[in-house]
Amino acid sequence: MPCLPFHALRLPTLLLLLGSLPAWAAPPAAAAPASAASADWTDPQSQLSWARCVEGMQWTGQACAGQPLLLTHAQALARAAARAKEDGLPWRVPRVPELRHLLEKAGKPAAPGTQLPPAPAGWLWTATANVRQDKPNPYNYGNAMNNRGSNANDTPFLLGWAVEAPGGEARGDIPKSRPLAVRLVRSKP
After folding, report:
1. Structural domain tally of the chain?
2. What is the pTM of this model?
3. Residue 3 lies in a domain
4. Do residues 156 and 132 touch, judged by C-beta distance below 8 A?
């Protein structure tokens, strides 16, 4: 091989001669993409990590941008499972007490940058089941008016629990087919 000045060598030839680039000569690594953790907020009291934004919105570093994704209850559960698989983190739809605690905490003043951005006003899905242990009396007028007659066993499958933001009111009579926003949560690893 003819002797060429160092500046005349091409990169493939240089790599062949050196075997690989030394660490000081390696091109700078591209900035790592923002991890899922940077878009999370951990409640120091409950140790739950919350998605800073409801699904469909993105965290910009200071606020949530975009439009919330409105999902049926089944779609919200599927979205949590898909995000858990995608991120490798145990995302889930929160339960009523967890979401109410979060909304209560979000309403209190906190140091800048440490508070969770508020969810858009409206109802948010929870994973709380609508379970009734008592047997309804189909002849009781009150039970019939509350749709607790002979088809009472179907009610938990048709209705779900949701919490209103920002107030924190919880209701268990929301049709699961109704599209609502959802904010996911996970236990801190």
Report:
1. 1
2. 0.66
3. no
4. yes
